[in-house]
Structures are given as C-alpha cells and as structure tokens.
UniProtKB/TrEMBL annotation:
A motif (Histidine triad motif) lies at residues 99-103. Transmembrane segments: none annotated. It holds the Pfam family HIT. SUPFAM superfamilies: HIT-like (SSF54197). Residues 8-115 form the HIT domain. It comes from Jiangella mangrovi. The active site is at 101 (tele-amp-histidine intermediate). This is Histidine triad (HIT) family protein. GO terms for molecular function: catalytic activity. It comes from the Bacteria.
Length: 115
C-alpha cells in the first residue's frame, strides 16, 4: 500500500494522527471534518495515497467505487437521506490536502450553486 510520509491524511490513515473515525474498511477510512460546513461533514479517504479523484479513477477505479459506497453508508448511519458528495481537485477548486477525499455533507438544506 502506498503512502506519502508528508501527507496529513496518510498519517491519519496510518494512526499517527488522531481523528474522530466514524467508519472504516480495509481500503477506506471515514472521519469527521475538523472544520464542519454542515451538521454532518465527514471525509472519506482511501488508505492508499492518491493525489486526487482523477488519479484514483485512473489507477484504482474499484477503490473510487468503494469511496462512494462508504460515503453513502456514512450518510445512512448519520440518518440523512439527502446529502452532497464533494471531490475538490486542485488548489483553485478548494483542495487543501492532496490526498483524494470525498466530503459527505448533510443535515441541512444545500443551496445551489455551492459557491
């Protein structure tokens, strides 16, 4: 399994940095965002390092599908039927940690456009 020694999310996945974990599988980890933008704001990451969603899709499409399944399972466990999944790719799109992650947002009405 690949990891980046300088990556915050690799350190969380490896247990070196604590997180409020809500769900985990062999290939994924889901934990609460430290700066929530909605009543439910959970990040789902692959344990293996991939820079962004496009590289994950190219290198490991099965893991990408598992991320989405796990995101849906998080929403169900949180008791929310309507939720938003967000992948940011690149700093101009708001990606601040360059380890692919999907935001699971819910528990309030989501407006459009998202901003």
């Amino acid at each position: 399994m690949s990891a980046d020694a300088d990556c915050l999310f690799c350190k969380i996945a490896g247990g070196q940095i604590p997180a409020d974990v809500v769900r985990e599988s062999e290939r994924t980890l889901a934990f609460r965002d430290i700066s929530p933008q909605a009543p439910t704001h959970v990040l789902v990451i692959p344990r293996e390092h991939h820079r962004d969603v496009a590289s994950l899709a190219a290198e490991s499409p099965d893991t990408l599908a598992e991320l989405v399944r796990e995101a849906a399972a998080v929403a169900a466990a949180e008791g929310i039927e309507a939720y938003r999944l967000v992948f940011n790719t690149g700093s101009e799109a708001g990606q601040s940690v360059f380890h692919v992650h999907v935001h699971v947002l819910g528990g309030r009405a989501m407006t459009w456009p998202p901003g």
